[in-house]
UniProtKB/TrEMBL annotation:
It comes from the Eukaryota. One of its GO terms (molecular function) is DNA binding. PROSITE patterns: ZF_BED (PS50808). The keyword Zinc applies. Keywords: Metal-binding, Zinc, Zinc-finger. The lineage of its organism: Eukaryota, Fungi, Fungi incertae sedis, Mucoromycota, Glomeromycotina. This is 1007_t:CDS:1.
Length: 107
């Protein structure tokens, strides 16, 4: 069963200049890649989508806060105490390590 967010987008035919399939927002007519992540992000940030529509889709995870979604987790048994769209807060006895690696072709 497809994700319900897709009812807010029109699937487009091939768009010149793009390799990936595209979708168009029914409200603002912006084009996005045909991916669920892009659709959810656009739907969350689209100014023409009403708060009620966002609440219907995102459910309890949606809190209107300057057109952003805040996700709060209050399970203190896990290393991450709470999360939001802008920050991760960890207990003081836990370290959070983020690493990236890249490879390059040198001749």
């Amino acid at each position: 069963m497809p994700d319900p967010v897709w009812i807010h987008f029109i699937q487009l035919e091939h768009v010149v200049g793009f390799k990936q399939k595209r979708r168009e927002c029914k409200y603002c007519e912006s084009q996005i890649n045909n991916s669920l992540r892009a659709a959810r992000t656009h739907f969350r940030n689209c100014d023409l989508v009403t708060s009620e529509q966002k609440k219907n889709y995102f459910g309890d995870l949606y809190e209107e806060n300057n057109s952003n979604i805040s996700i709060n987790i209050s399970d203190t048994s896990s290393p991450v105490v709470s999360t939001s769209a802008s920050a991760l807060v960890a207990p003081t006895n836990t370290s959070l390590v983020i690493s990236t690696s890249s490879t390059s072709n040198k001749k």
